Predict the structure.
Amino acid sequence: MIQFTIEDRNGERQPIEIPEGINLSLMEVLKASEYNILATCGGMALCATCHVQVLNGLETLPEPQDTELDMLDTLPDADSDSRLACQIRVDDTLEGAIFRIKSEEPV
Amino acid sequence: MITTDICIIGAGPVGLFAVFEAGLLKMRCHLIDALPQVGGQLSEIYPQKPIYDIPGYPSINAQDLVDNLMEQIASFNPGFTLGERVEGLDRQTDGSYIVTTNEGTTVHCQVVVIAGGLGCFEPRKPEIVNLERFEGKGVAYMVKNPEQLRDRRVVLAGGGDSALDWTVFLADVANEVTLVHRSDTFRGAPDSAEKVFNLARQGRINLVLQSTITSINGNGHLQEVSITAKDKTVMTLAADHLIPLFGLTPKLGPIADWGLTIDKSAIHVDTTDYSTNVERIYAIGDINTYPGKLKLILCGFHEAALMCQSAFRYVHPDQKLSFKYTTVNGVPTF
């Protein structure tokens, strides 16, 4: 099992356990876990509505690709620890990581 | 006032296809969209992305699908109000509706169909103290008329293509142009980034990198912008206009206040006809929700077809609807 933590917009943290070998993105896990995020573009790094801040474990994640960096660059509140959840595959590099949901809450 | 049978809010693929299905049943449509062009998410977010699950098309680019839909509905002559956001909905005594936009356009219709995808795409607003106070008083999120900025002091914020392009353009128009960006590099088009750096080297624009705008002030109209650098130093800049360019984000908007049953930005519908809890208002496509809902264009097309069969009774209450395949009559226009 892969274990990581999600901090919601209210600062509440919830541990998440995902079996290894499941081909999901972090965005898909967030949606499946009933977190209120839009993920408008469906995972193409085109809308930034799945913006997360990596509070722990940033260095172990695979480097962001150009499309992700391009989109992050358009966000007013992105920083060096920002990532798009749709571009992060859930695998053992996420073990122990902590993600804070940064995208705006849908009305 | 515009008069039509069905007012469709949202000109994305599902809204466009609803025009076709309505046209087959002799119902006229008028579409309203906050974006300046048709196509919704497809045209705005991913026009060049291929879509693989449209029946009959092993692969089709998003914009090509929009173009084909426009060709498919052309014979039904739908009306379009683009670049305006629906604000008001007034039910008339006979059950019909008058839909009003933020620009004052009014549409009288028998049926309202919400095909708004994920809602209106609105400018993404940065956290700047007093930002909303100066909207329309120096703060704007797009450049509608560059001439209004001629010989003025303009501050732009952002690091994407829009911020770069407008910085280059306004360098020849405004009296003073300042671009503020939180990073020290730009990931927009390399050519545009190079032009911006060249303009800064020539002293034709001010480039403030590794910084963000934190507050703005003025006496009735914007007068100054406070910029905080990563090292926490603060500088104040005189400015007449601030244009934050951080892209668009979807919002449900005024639809949320229409008494519809809404859960997590989606409208509950009856799957027999995709009607909402409010009579004569339907919701189709990504904006609705029901058990088993799949946010797929092809599901939205199906919903549009069933919606029209149901809406017919309001538009033609004195006629009996008999279902026919298009292979029987072809595509009869008005």
In short: The interface with chain A takes residues 41, 45-46, 49, 118, 124-127, 157-160, 182-183, 186-188, 212, 244, 246-247, 249-252, 256, 264-265, 295 of chain B (CB under 8 Å). Residues 124 and 248 of chain B are 5 Å apart (CA to CA).
